[in-house]
Amino acid sequence: MLIMGWDGTEVTPQIRELITDHHLGSILLTAKNLKSAHQTAKLVQELQTIAHNAGHPYPLLIALDQENGGVNSLFDEEHICQFPSSMGQAAAGSPDLSYQLAKATATEVSACGVNLILGPVLDVLTNARYQPLGVRATSDDPQEVSQYGIAAMKGYKDAGVATCGKHFPSYGNLDFLGSSLDIPIITQTLEELALSALVPFRNAIATGKLDAMFVGGCGITNPSMKVAHACLSEQVVDELLREELGFTGVAISECLEMEALRTEMGVRTGTIMAVQAGCDLVLLCRAYDVQLEAISGLKLGLENEVLTKERVYTSLRRVLKMKRGCTDWAKALNPPGISLLKQIHPSHLALSMKAYDDSITVMRDNEKLLPLNESMHQEEELLLLTPLVKPLPASAMTKTILEGSTKIRSENPIHDKWIHRERSAIMSGEGVFRELGRSLARARHGKLLHTSYTANGVRPVHESLIQRASTIILLTADANRNLYQAGFTKHVAMMCSLLKASGHKKNLIVVAVSSPYDFAMDKSIGTYICTFDFTETAMSALVRALCGAFTPHGTLPGTLRKAPRKAVQSSAGGKSKTRTQHWLVEPYDVERDTKGLQDLLFAMVRGSAPNHQYFYAFGPHSFSLLSDMMMVEQQHEEEPKMEEQHFVVRNSSTGALYGFCSTYYLPSTFTGIIGAIFVDPSKRNLSIGYSLHRRAVRNLLQKHPDIKHFQLGCCLPGIFPGIPLDHSDALSMSSAITPGSTTSSTAASSGLKSWLSTTCGWDLSPSSSSVVRTRKIYNLLLPSLQTWSSPPDLPTTLQLAGISFDLIPGGGGSSGRTTNSTPNSSLSAEQESVLSFVSSHSTPEILTLYRLALLQSPPLFSSSALSYSSVSSASPTDPTTYNNNHHNNNHNNTWIIRAKIQSQSQSQSQSQSSQAPGVVEGGGGGAGGGAEQVIGTIIISSDLGRELHLPSLSSASGSSSGGTGGIIAPVVSSMTGQQQQQQQQQANLLLVLQGLVMLGLRQNKREKMACCLLSWVSNGNGSGGSGSRDGGQQQNNSVETLLGMGFEVQQVWEEVVNGVEQFASLA
C-alpha cells in the first residue's frame, strides 16, 4: 500500500530492507536514481531480484515520471529519445503522433524494466497564464486535453506499460497564497469543475484503459467543499473520483513528504487519512525515516482499528490487478535492456525530429524575419539574449553538474562543496543555452553574440550588443511567473523600435522556450516563436526553423489555436476562405505619389531579404517606361506601343503609400503584365496586395477587351522579371552548383506562389491548360573577371563548327550598308539583321531592348567609351575575333555581338582570303537569308542595364573599384533547313551561347572591369536565349553551362503567362 523512492544510483541497505523486511511492493524512480539506460536496467533487475528472493508473489511496480518535454527522469543521449511536452505535442496538431510518441516512450522505459508511467497529464489549464504546470498540460480546452490524453494513454498501454492519469481533480487553475507552507487552492465549484477540469478525467476513465489515478495534494475551497488536501479527503477520492466518475483503478496519493502536509498533521496521520480517503498507494519519495514513520502509521491504524482490514484488502486487490496487467516475473527479471534500445533508437530518433519540427510554432512574423537568411546578411551580427534558468533534470547539463559534484564531494571539504555548488548553479544557468548559440552560429555561417540577462534588467553590456547587432533573438522561459523576463523583453523591444525609427536595422525575434503564453497576446512583439520546452532536441529544432531548414507549421493549442480561425470560414465547396478587406485603389499620380513611393521603396529595403537588396538602386521612376523607349517606338509607327498604368493604396490624409502595383500592356501579343506588387511591411496581411492585384487585372480586362494573356513579371523595366525564386529551387541541379542554398528560400517562394494561386487566382502549374508559358530568368555574376580565362578549346570548337562573330555598334552609329526596307533608313544591314533575328526568336520586350541598344544615342551611353581597335590576340583562325572594320573610331559603349553560320565552302574559302586574320565580314543576310544565317545575338552595355533597371546591374554598379561590366539578353536559335542537317553536331545552342558570352567577357576584361554581370538569361520554354520561342532540350542546360564558365547565380525569377480565361470572373 506504499510506493517509495530513495536518493542514489545504487541499491542502498535502506531500500533493500524496505523490500525484504517491510514487503514494499512499489518503487518510484527519479532522475537522482538514474544515470543511463544500461544502469537503469541493471538497477531495476537488482530490485526485482531482491523482491523475488524475498518471496514477493508479484514483481515490484516500478514507476517513473517520463512525461517528455522538460519532465523526464531517464536521460540517455545514446539510447533514450527526447520527445516534445504535452503542449508541444498538441501544437503539432496530430493525436496520432501523440499516440506514437507515447508508445515509443513506453517501449524505451519498459526495456529498462519500468512498468508504470505516471502519465498522461489530464489537467486543463483553465488559467493558463499563471500556472506552474505550464507546458506539462495539453491546453485550456478540456476536449483537446481529452483527445491527446487518451491517445497517449493508448500508446502506453499498447507498449505494455500501466498508466496513471494526473493530477486529480486538477492542477490547472490554482490559487497560491504565497507562503511556502501554504497549499495551492482550487476555488472552483464542483459544477464548474464538472464543466471543464473534470472532463478529461471522466473521458479517460470511460475508456476502461486507465490503470491508476494520481490524486493531488492541493486544497479545495468552495461553498460545498472545504478540503485541506485532496489526496486525504474522502469527498475527493471515494465520492468524487470513484462514485461520481466511476473510477475502479488504483488511486495514488501525492507525496506525503510535502512540507505543508508534514507540518500540519504529520506523516503517520497523513498516511492513515490517505488510506481512509480511498488511496491505494501512498507516496513517500525519499526520506527513510519518514518512510518508516508511514509504515508504523499503517500498523497503528490497523491495531487501533482506525483502518479496517477490508479497506486494506480492497486496495491490495486493486494493486495486484494492475501488476498482473503490466508485469510478470519472467519479464521483470529479464528486461530487454540495451539490445532492444539499440534496435529501436534510429526509428525513434527520426520520430523525435519530426515531432519537434511539427511542434515549433510561429504565432506571429509580421515583418517576415524568418528564415534568418532571408532577413539579414551573413556578415551582419546576430545577438542571442537568454535568461538564467535551472538546467532540466534530464539533460546533458545536469548530468555534467552531477558528475562534477560527485568529484567535489570526494575531494573537497564541506565549505568548498557549498561554494562549488553555488558557482555551479550560476555557471549552469549561463550554460543551458550555450549550445543553442553555437548551433545557431554554425547553421548560419555567421557571427553570433550571446549573453544572458537577469533580474538586474538591461545593463550597459546589453545596450552595447544591441547597438552592434542587426537582429536580436530574445528567449523567455515562463515570463508570466518570472516577471523580470517580461520587463527585460519590453525594454529591449522599445530600444529596437527607437533604433529602427532612426534608420538602424534592428529586428527582434522573441522565442518562448517554455510557456507559449508569455507574449501570446502582446502584438507589439512582431515575431513570436514557441518551442514548448528548452531541451537540447527542442533547441536543435529551433535552429532549423530559424535558419529555414523547414517551415514551422505548429499552432498554439486550445483557445489560442482557435483565435486565428475567426478569420476563416468554410465555403460551400468545403475549402477554407480567408475574409478579405477591400481597400480603395487609386491610379498612380506622379506628382502626388512620387515621395510616397520613394518612402515605400525605402521601407521595402529595410524589410527585404538580402538577395532583394537591389531595391537600394531604384527610385519612383524605375517603374515607368523610358522616354527613350517612346522614341524607339515612334521610329516604328507601324507597330502598336507598349502601355503602362500603375495603382496605389494610399492614406489620403498623410499621403503615405501602403501599396503599389505596376502594370503594362503589350499590344503586339495582346498581353497584360503585372510588373510588381509592393506592400509596406508594416501593413501586410491586411488584403492590400489582394486589392491592388484585383484592380490591376480588372483595369487590363476593361481597357483592353482584346487581351489574350496575363503575365507575371516584366523584363522591361526589369525590376521583377517574374516570381522571385530560391537558387536551388530554380536550378534543380546538385547542391554543388549552388553552395549555401537552403530550403528556407524555397519555402518563402512557395508562400508567395501560394498567395498568387489561392488568393489572386493564378494557375502556376506548368502542365495546366491555363498556363501559356513558364520560364525562369537568371542574373549571373562572374565575380573575378581579371583572373578569368576563356575555355582553351572553345575557339577551336567554334571554328570547326563554322561559327563566326561580328560586332555591331549601338547608339545609332552606322557606317555600313543600309537598307530601305525598314522605316528607319539610318540602320545598317547588320543592325537590321539583328532586329529581324530577335523579332523572330524572342519576345516584344527583348526586341524593344535591342532597339534601344541599336538606336539610342548619347547621353544614354555616354560613359567611358569602349575601344575595339585591338580586339584579340587570338590565333589567325580564331573565330572569336570581331569584324570591326566599320567602327574603330566609334565611341559608343553599347554593342551587339552577332553569331553567324556559313556553308562549309564559304568557310574554307574565307580561311584562304586576303582579309585580316580571323575577321569574318557580316553580309546582308537577315535571319536566315543569303549565304549566312544569324544564330545568336547578345548586348554588351552596363549603362543600358542600369538605365533599364536590371536588378543585378543596378545593385552592382559602382560596387567594385574596377567597375562592373554588363552582358545582356542572349538570344540563341538553332539552324534550319539543310545547314542544320549538315552541321547540327557542330553548331549547337550551347556552343553558340558560350561563344557569345566568352566574347562579352573578353571585351569587359580588356576594359579593366573587375566583374561582369550577365542578365536576362532564360532557362524556360526555348532554346537558350531570353524569351526564346524555340523548343529544345539544350535550353535546360544553358544556365549550367554558364555556371561552368565561372558564373554564379545572383537572382532567379519565374515568369508565368496565363490565358485570359483564368481571370474571366473579374471582367
UniProtKB/TrEMBL annotation:
Its GO biological process annotations read: carbohydrate metabolic process; regulation of transcription by RNA polymerase II
GO terms for molecular function, please? Answer: histone H3 acetyltransferase activity; hydrolase activity, hydrolyzing O-glycosyl compounds
> What are the record's GO terms for cellular component?
nucleus
Give TM segment ranges.
Answer: none
Please list the residue ranges that the record marks as compositionally biased, kind Low complexity.
902-919
Pfam families per the UniProt record, alphabetical: Glyco_hydro_3
InterPro entries the UniProt entry points to: Acyl_CoA_acyltransferase (IPR016181), GH (IPR017853), Glyco_hydro_3_C_sf (IPR036881), Glyco_hydro_3_N (IPR001764), Glyco_hydro_3_N_sf (IPR036962), NagZ_Beta-hexosaminidase (IPR050226)
Q: Does the keyword Zinc-finger apply?
A: no
Spell out the residue ranges making up region: Disordered.
872-891, 901-927
Query: Taking every annotated instance into account, which residue ranges of this chain make up the domain Glycoside hydrolase family 3 N-terminal?
Result: 13-321
Member of which family? Belongs to the glycosyl hydrolase 3 family.
Q: What is this protein called?
A: Beta-N-acetylglucosaminidase
